Amino acid sequence: MLDCLIPGDAQALPLHLVTRGGLEALLQRLPPGQAAFLRASGFTAKAQEWRLLPSLSATGGSGIDGAVAGLGDDAASHAASPWAYGGLPMALPEGTDWRLEGEAEASAAVLGWCLGAYRYTRFKAPARQPARLVTPPGTETAIAEARAICRGRDLINTPAGHLGPEELAAAVGTLAAAHGATFEVIDGAALEAGFPAIAAVGQGSPRAPRVAVLRWQGPGTAADAPLVALCGKGVCFDTGGLDLKPAAAMLRMKKDMGGAATMIALAEMLMASGAPIRLLLLVGAVENSVSGTAFRPMDVIATRKGLTVEIGNTDAEGRLVLADLLAFAAEQAPALVLDAATLTGAARVALGPDLPALFSDDAQVANTILRFGLDVHDPLWQLPLHRSYVSWLDSNVADLNNVATKPMAGAVVAALFLRRFVPDELPWAHIDLYAWNDHTRPGRPEGGEIQTARALSRAVTALLLHRDNP
Question: Least CB-packed of 65, 131, 220, 384 within 10 Å?
Fold first, then answer.
């Protein structure tokens, strides 16, 4: 998958990474002709700026002796950001090989390079191949994270006609097999009995819903090691059900399983790192379709926890999927529960596409996740679980409604709905994310995106393994 990397002993051209403050020193080190070329071309080392260095050899060779790329003003910030390097594999000439020189941060560079080289190629060959990077030593974690993110992107980018509930569950099985984890699929009568809300959401589709369950224990980990439960909304396509979405709003609904893809990627990162934890991954794989058997507005459905839910809107189905998963996760006595979902448009209105909304009433959990999000350039922003809005979910005929009686605070109300299915004493965080890049930027090509997984992988380790120094 990562054909943009080559072994560390491969022959390659130098790629000089430089900040504005370090530019003059670099110019002094370069051959005078190349330094003169950079000055004449107006190179200032601003972020994302780059130049090829012409060959000074009398024989000509390839005509290129290297390249220079700018990191901007703030060395610490830009050098540590994967996005500082994300444009290079598609900017540098196709078929060329490069080694890092100068002020680059190796792990960030490798991650950004791999994410920038990514293209979804299942149905169409790429227009060009990326330039390749010699793998620096000590970047194994970055490579593992890049693999997990690229696989997650592939899942989101796959059209719903090729990725239904069965295929999404199978992706969890493939991951389990790769890491020696146990794997189970719950479907049919067992799903109807144990996950009735998920069954209700999927009853309108000919592609039956299922719950994928992965269990893993780190190498040499004790049987009582902390258990982290990951729950992902895997709605493979969302029509809105009988509360039908407008056509324009359906155009990206293959990404409505982005929460599941994120939790799958996070599970892969944790297992690849050999984290000394026990891991439970739950994916509710389902399709919300329109048919004569689809669930209806004002239906009352059961949930695994025993609470009844009146359906105020069939397009608020993701919280029903997560409700059953969260109830099941809580039964396993985990030390931490995380869930992710493309849950509400309201979160995007509040924070835009790049900032997933974080909800948690555990200050240590929230602060740890937020801190690592900033540290690894995978940010989130916390929104409140404002309890005064709980009454907005009241129903006259059931324990609660799946939507609010007021057209405000949609992301907050959705999180409050989920809170009803998690015991108060259980550390829990909910992430409402977009899982998509609307346009191509360095390291972030247009299409499916895995958000928060890198931040969460570090937060899990800090919260569960270093509790005295989170």
Answer: 220
Q: Please give the distance of CA 77 from its chain centroid, rounded to a whole number.
A: 22
Could you tell me the pTM of the whole model?
Answer: 0.97
At residue 90, what is the residue type? Answer: M
Contact (CB, 8 A) for 243 and 326: no
Backbone phi, psi, residue 279, to 5°: -125, 135
Alpha-carbon gap, residue 182 to 328, rounded angstroms: 17
Burial class of residue 32 in the structure, from the number of CB atoms within 10 Å of its CB (0-12 exposed, 13-18 middle, 19+ buried) = exposed
Active-site residue list: 245, 319
Sign for the pseudo-dihedral over CA of 400, 410, 321, 378: negative
pLDDT one-digit tens code per residue, 103-158? 899 999 999 999 999 999 999 999 999 999 999 999 999 999 999 999 999 999 99
- Rounded CA-CA distance 147/165 in Å is 23
Residue that has been written with the tokens 């592939």 in this structure: 154
Structure tokens at 279: 């891991």
Q: Which of 192, 298, 176, 162 is nearest to 242 (CA)?
A: 298
Here the tokens at position 458 are 């570090």
Between CA 229 and CA 334 the distance in angstroms is: 6
Cα separation, 88 vs 49, in Å, equals 10
Query: What integer pLDDT is reported at residue 470 of this predicted model?
Result: 38
Radius of gyration of the chain (CA): 24
Quick: pLDDT tens for 9-42. 889 999 999 999 999 999 999 999 999 999 999 9
Tokens found for residue 72: 């901007």
